[in-house]
Amino acid sequence: MPATTPVAQDFVPYATAAIDFHRALNIPTGPLVASRAELDSLHEHLVSLHALLDAHTQRTSPLLPGEGDHLKAARTRLWQAADHLHAAYHSAPRPGTGEVPAPEACRARRPEGAPELTICRRHQQTAHLVRHRATPAELHSPFTGLVRH
């Protein structure tokens, strides 16, 4: 009988099930504007997935460069998605007033003043890591780079 080592609990399937459950319970059919709270939660989730993929990429790439290339591409795509969610947050109606920021304010990248919001702090912290792991060309290209086969 082969020796097996105990594996740490894998919580990713539970996270996926929780998101599916949340969608089924909280997102009705038909048109609906995503709230800032929902966008903030989704951003937090994507940033957490980005950190998980970053850890796998850093450990895998030196051992299996081909697999590492795919993980790096997935990590870059997750950052691009998180960046879009951050922009959507600032384009969403403000709670209470329902006011939608003007396009000029959104282009200024700080439509609500200094980034004191949790989503902005989280985004800036992750952006710092991203700038060290990827080039600007990789981050802005529709193609995430060379993938070995």
Assess the beta-strand content as a share of residues: under 5%
The helix content is: 55-70%
Shape estimate: globular
Report the mean per-residue pLDDT as an integer: 83
Q: Provide a count of the helices.
A: 6
Structural class: mainly alpha
Order of SSEs: HHHHHH
Low-confidence stretches: none
The major beta sheet can be summarized as: none
End-to-end CA span: 35 Å
Rg, Cα atoms, Å: 18 Å
How many E-type strands? 0
Walk me through the structure.
Helix 2 (36-60) runs parallel beside helix 5. The longest helix has 27 residues, at 65-91. 62% of the residues lie in helices and 0% in strands. The mean pLDDT is 83. With 149 residues, it is an all-alpha fold.
